[in-house]
Design brief:
This protein starts with a strand and ends in a 16-residue tail after the last helix. Strand 5 and strand 6 form a beta hairpin. It is of the alpha+beta class. It contains 8 helices and 13 strands. InterPro entries: 3-oxo-5_a-steroid_4-DH_C (IPR001104), SRD5A/TECR (IPR039357), TECR-like_N (IPR049127), Ubiquitin-like_domsf (IPR029071). This is very-long-chain enoyl-CoA reductase. Pathway: Lipid metabolism; fatty acid biosynthesis. It is found in: Endoplasmic reticulum membrane.
């Protein structure tokens, strides 16, 4: 039995109260359940009501099973992200990115965009809370990781004491290739820093603060920046370094190729960023634009890796240094693995995906 009906200005018990004006929204209390009705008027003033059932959300500690928070009258279309915001109001120290909510204490964390009514729960949902610890934004993480190789290379270029023999401290190389190599290396990482701030969109906004030191070391040593990143700086800037065999002609051609590849890589990142300009996280097929650098999308799925590999290949030609060549080879192998993974994901998710495209090298690989 319906106990009471609430219009915006008063409560009416079982229709005993008459209203002069009918509101668009009516809330009905039926026992402990609140029902919302929306009144819609047609040409003949016929009313149509849609029923919405509110949810109750109970958030528990997974270890003690004690109740941390009880949320009443939660909209069925509320997302997990919105529930985290409500929980944050009760516990200000646990901001949304620090929270993980699960249906099972040992299960996977729910995604922020999951909708409450679509979860396998009744009108009273029980969620388990996990504290992920202090968080740091991914933008700050990548800024720290990209700044590392940039800073390390400059130490070798300026020949700080104790790197080479003391008589070479703060000296400079007489070869233009060494200076151009430093400029190109710096431009590469400065570009990455700029892209991190203004271009890239991260699917996960934060990461645990405790992981940032580990990630910085991992990036410099393993993540496409192996120990060779230190070795190439050491050998290119060494006092005994010899210039390329074909001299300035070889350096200039390599420099032109490097600049083209860097511009192409930046153009691809902009094109990928524009795919999510509406804020959507859904995967989409990237297509060429009016920018000629994006026309490589006709032939490969990941032209950003193609341009990246081309940049390091040109850097190898410019310096004619074996450690740089080994670094380029290892980087290319890693980028090929990534490109193949993304390529097959596109094929699996999109039936209309272009058949002509290869992962990283047109017509070959």
């Amino acid at each position: 039995m319906i106990e009471s009906v609430r219009f915006p200005d008063r409560w009416c018990v079982e229709g005993e109260c008459k209203l002069k004006e009918i509101s668009d929204t009516v809330i009905v209390r039926k026992g402990r359940e609140l029902l919302r009705f929306t009144l819609l008027w047609g040409e003949k003033h016929q009313k149509r009501m849609s029923r919405v059932t509110f949810f109750e959300v109970e958030i528990l500690d997974p270890k003690t099973k004690g109740q941390l928070c009880f949320l009443d009258k939660v909209e069925p279309h509320a997302t997990i992200g919105e529930i985290k915001c409500l929980f944050h109001k009760a516990y200000p120290q646990w901001y949304p990115s620090r929270q993980a909510l699960k249906l099972d204490p040992k299960g996977k964390a729910l995604k922020d965009d999951e909708i409450l009514q679509n979860l396998p729960v009744g009108t009273t949902a029980t969620l388990y809370f996990k504290d992920l610890g202090p968080q740091v934004g991914w933008t700050m993480v990548f800024l720290s990781e990209y700044a590392g190789p940039l800073f390390i290379y400059l130490l070798f270029y300026f020949r700080l004491p104790y790197i080479y023999h003391h008589k070479h401290a703060f000296t400079s190389s007489p070869y233009p290739a060494v200076t151009l190599a430093c400029v190109c290396h710096s431009i590469h990482y400065i570009k990455r820093l700029i892209e991190t701030i203004f271009v890239h969109r991260f699917s996960h906004g934060t990461m645990p603060l405790r992981n940032i030191v580990r990630n910085c070391l991992y990036f410099i040593i393993f993540f496409n920046r192996t120990v060779f990143s230190i070795q190439l700086a050491y050998y290119i800037n060494h006092p005994l370094y010899t210039p390329p065999y074909y001299g300035n002609k070889q350096v200039n051609y390599a420099l032109a190729m490097f600049v083209i590849c860097q511009a192409g890589n930046f153009s691809i990142h902009l094109a990928l960023n524009n795919l999510r300009s509406d804020g959507s996280k859904a995967r989409k097929i990237p297509y060429p634009t009016k920018n000629p650098f994006t026309w490589l999308f006709f032939f490969v799925s990941c032209p950003n890796y193609t341009y990246e590999a081309g940049a390091w290949f040109s850097f190898t030609i410019m310096t004619q240094c074996v450690p740089v060549g080994l670094f380029t080879l290892i980087s290319f192998i890693q980028m090929t693995i990534w490109a193949k993974g993304k390529h097959y994901t596109y094929i699996r998710e999109f039936k209309e995906y272009p058949d002509l495209r290869m992962p990283i090298i047109p017509f070959l690989l």
